[in-house]
Ribulose-phosphate 3-epimerase (Listeria booriae), 214 residues
Amino acid sequence: MTAVAPSLLAADYLNLGAEVEKMAAAGADYLHFDVMDGHFVPNLTFGIDMVAQIAAKSPIPLDVHLMLANPEKYIEAFAKAGAAIISVHIEACPHIHATLQAIKKTGAKAGVVLNPGTPAESLTAVLQEADLILQMTVNPGFGGQSFIPETLENIKKLAKWRDQHSYNYLLEVDGGINEQTAEIAKQAGVDILVAGSYLFKHANPLKAIANMKK
C-alpha cells in the first residue's frame, strides 16, 4: 500500500497541533517537514525547535526534507530533534555519499532529493546507500505549484534500477500531488506521496488519504 505524508507547509500555523492530530487521525503515515533557508531555495520555513516540539507529540514519524545550503551542518541537530527520515538535495551536497552516511550514523533514515531538472543518473553512485529518494515534482521553495509530469521519468528509471539491482530505497514524490497526480505517480513506482494543499484544504482528509493509498 502507498504511504501518504502530509506536508506541514500547507497547514494552518495558528492551529498546528490540531492540524497534526487531524492528519494522524486521517491515516497519514508520516508528517513531511520542508525546512527552507532562504538561500538554497527562496523561502524561509521551519526550524529545529518546531521539529522537536512536534516530534515529542506526534504519533507518526517525521519526514524532514532539508532544502538547505550545507545541510550536513544540521543533520545531527535534526536527528536529535526527532526526525525519522532526513533527506538532503544532491544539488547542495558535493560529498553526497559521506552526507548519507552521516545521516545513517544518527539512526535516522537517509534520503536524497532530486530537483526537477536533475537527472536520475546523478545518483547511480549512492543508490545502495540511500534509504529513500525524493523526486521533486515542482520547483522547490513554495507550496501550491502545479505538478510537472516529466519528472516521473526519473521515478521510472529509479524503480527499474531498484528491481534490477535489488536496492532497498523507497521512492517519494513531492509537489502538486492530488488524487489524480497521485495515481500517475503510483503507476511510475512511487511508494510515498507528499501532499500539502490538497490534504489540508480537503473537506474530508480521511477520505482523501484513503483514496491516495489505494
